[in-house]
Amino acid sequence: MNKRDLNNQRLIAFEEERDFDPENYSVEVYSYNDTTLGLNALWEVWRNSEGELDRRFGPAMVSVWAEDGSVILEEYYHKGVLHREDGPAVFYRDPRNDQVLQEEYYRDGVRYYPNTKSALDPAP
């Protein structure tokens, strides 16, 4: 299965999720064109009924490369702050090869480093 097919399946899943709880979530899609970088991207932004970035089952902000649908950035939010309990809350990817360039971990808006003695300890 190619990236476009995977992204079509993902879009269907997004629509099903939104339809599951339409009164509490809204989804907006924006286009972005950076001529300096030669990047055309689409942003998908999820908000709760209070207007905060929030999404129950996935990233609240997703940026995909318009050329082939490759994911560039994913950010997980809960009630307006970066938050994810089962992995990084922020992913930056290279759209040319899907390699993760950077991951950032957050809980309740506080950045933490998972490789330290305690996950909530500051960086060494």
Q: Report how far apart the termini are.
A: 42 Å
What order do the SSEs take from the amino end to the carboxyl end, as H and E? HEEEEEEEEE
Mean pLDDT, all residues: 81
Q: Fraction of residues in helices?
A: 10-25%
Multimeric status of the protein: single chain
Rg to the nearest angstrom? 15 Å
Strand content: 35-45%
- DSSP E strands, number: 9
How do you describe this structure in short?
This protein is mainly beta and 124 residues long. The chain is 15% helix and 40% strand.
Task: Name the features.
124 residues; single chain; two-stranded antiparallel ribbon; mainly beta; 9 strands
Written overview of the protein:
The structure is a single chain. With 124 residues, the chain is mainly β. Helices cover 15% and strands 40% of the residues. It has one helix and nine strands, in the order αβββββββββ. The strands form two sheets. Strands 1-2-3-4-7-8-9 form a seven-stranded antiparallel β-sheet, with no helix packed on it. The radius of gyration is 15 Å and the shape is globular. 19% of the residues are buried. The mean pLDDT is 81.
